[in-house]
Structures
1.
Amino acid sequence: MDEAVYKIVELAGSSKTDIEAAIQNALSRASKTIRNIRWFQAMEIRGYMENDRIDYWQVTIKVGFKTEDNHTEKKEIPPVEIKQNQKPQENKGASRYRCKVCGYIYDPEKGDPSQDIKPGTSFEDLPDSWKCPECGVGKDQFEKVS
Ligand code: FE
């Protein structure tokens, strides 16, 4: 029944204690910004030496997280309300922004119906509470693409 699609990001965690703690540190940090993490895979293990002793461990992991179902459903985009006396929003040349974590692109012409963001809303005008609809990270994880 569950035919989930996962997105994958790569992270490196480190710990002075051991490999497991290095992985847990990476996962704990990732959980703060990524929702629905389901699995991880350890890719590389490195150790750093200091005075002939292991100083700390670093483990690179891949993290798989489930994409949010509500975003894949096609929703009807509500029409833009333009009140009289209100100038249409000038969104010509408004930039698109890409999520550095999952690659989602915010297109101001489309807005984000999953979070009630009307078409024509520039990225700068999104509320600070807005999150990437794919992976849940905040606006600070986005970069301008056009
Ligand atoms: Fe994202």
2.
Amino acid sequence: MSSDSGSLIAGPGAGEAAPTGKPAIRGGLIVVSAPSGAGKSSLIERALTRVPDLQYSVSYTTREARGPERNGVDYHFVPEDEFLSMRERGEFIEWARVHGHLYGTKASAIEAEMAGGRDVILDIDVQGAEQIRDKMREAVTIFVLPPSRQVLVARLSRRNLNSADDLARRLFNASNEVGKFEEFDYVIINDDLERASAALESIVLAERNRPPRQRQRIEPIIETFRSGVSNG
Ligand code: ADP
Ligand code: 5GP
């Protein structure tokens, strides 16, 4: 899909000011979950470069940075006491313990992006997806499935994991996570990266055309028909 794929969106882009000067139309929330190593980050990275007005939500975590990961870009790496204080103050819209570490999404950060008219994409585990579903019915949830367990093992083995135990724990969790696929709005099988990326991008773009997402644009159009009737 080319970088001008935003042309599939009806009317102005999600964050573009409407011609009337009205405030930007509120963006949506897209949750992507998958077993570790299934390819979420690869798919999200591509979507971010190809879909306009799409913003990645940087999570907070208590785990150590791996390899080239950067604080504030890949994660906000925080000590456990800081994470627990944030949780105590109710700053997370969702949080979970995953593979032995704490992870959470700061509510105010995603709220600001959505209010600015951008869609926000989250890379979170299935427990976090459940919490988002309970709190925001309009959120769109996507499950990324690897083509097989063997392929998942191969993908995880290529990664810079801390230990053999870490690999075993991720595989054990994967067996439980894949059983939850039916709770999601969409399932993308990440066999071929190009095909799976196109699927993710098309979901994000298609969701922008849902009537509730376009109400501010639709109502003035419908009004022209109403006034047309009363004017004869
Ligand atoms: P996750 O974010 O779900 O943990 P990553 O995106 O980091 O997974 O992918 C795990 C590994 O698998 C990476 O080495 C990545 O390059 C590779 N990978 C992801 N998708 C594919 C694919 N469709 N085909 C082959 N390799 C892939
Ligand atoms: P990793 O340590 O490999 O970066 O991530 C481990 C898992 O934590 C992945 O499944 C990832 O989706 C999940 N994760 C990352 N950020 C969050 C978050 O903010 N909340 C929740 N619930 N899970 C997260």
